[in-house]
């Protein structure tokens, strides 16, 4: 069977071998099965396919299993092996290296662990992987500078996102909102200011039903006191106009790119998100 036809958005980024291939060594199959089919790493850090039974097609469950296998192995590596692990997969991937690095960086930066509703600090292996990805992206970029992991400031406060994640609301599902907020943080940390503005615009379009309105115009005009309305007016007018300009303006002879000051509506967004936490 052709492996090229199987891997797409998730599986594409990691190196696997199918145990039902005719040339898959029997000794490796026995090792996999002794591990209940989870994973096996040999000295060159190849990750083998999760399944221990022959199959005809990749399923969504395979996608999840293989990514979690990658993450689980990374988090249990000795520190000196972390760079060797990620370098192996980076070299093995035959597609666009920057796409691969951006994917790994985004997925790991967005992952987190909690205990009792409190977000735990990232493990050292994760920090090392993120730093390696950033350095590599910086080396690969001739025009664009990728920042270090942003610890001094996040566009959306991590504690605020955690508060939203802990809300139990029978009327609204906050999954999409939380995902957009995490992606805003990722984009801001990488200097992707177009994305920050556009995603922020999507957030204010997404949340009006929480306030019993259909549009953000109605929220900004009718909800809350004077101070809240002022913050929302700033989002509704200044931020929305900036984002709309990026979305709709056609190519010109000369362009000026946005910077972090131009898209920094983080305080007004935090006021909005704080109110969602309060009323939910």
Question: What does the model show?
Answer:
The chain is built from eleven helices and two strands. Helix 3 packs across helix 5, helix 4 (97-110) packs antiparallel against helix 5 and helix 9 runs antiparallel to helix 10. The N and C termini lie far apart (51 Å). The longest helix has 23 residues, at 226-248. Helices cover 54% and strands 1% of the residues. It has helices spanning 26-34, 60-75, 79-92, 97-110, 124-140, 158-165, 175-189, 193-206, 216-222, 226-248, 266-279; strands at residues 114-115, 118-119. A two-stranded antiparallel sheet has the order 1-2. The radius of gyration is 22 Å and the shape is globular. The chain has 280 residues and is mainly α.
Structural class: mainly alpha
End-to-end gap:
51 Å
- The level of helicity is 40-55%
Overall mean pLDDT: 78
Cα gyration radius (Å): 22 Å
Unreliable segments of 5+ consecutive residues: 1-12, 143-152
Strand content: under 5%
Instruction: Please tally the helical runs, counting DSSP H or I stretches of 4 or more residues.
Output: 11
Q: What is the helix/strand order?
A: HHHHEEHHHHHHH
How many strands appear in the DSSP assignment? 2
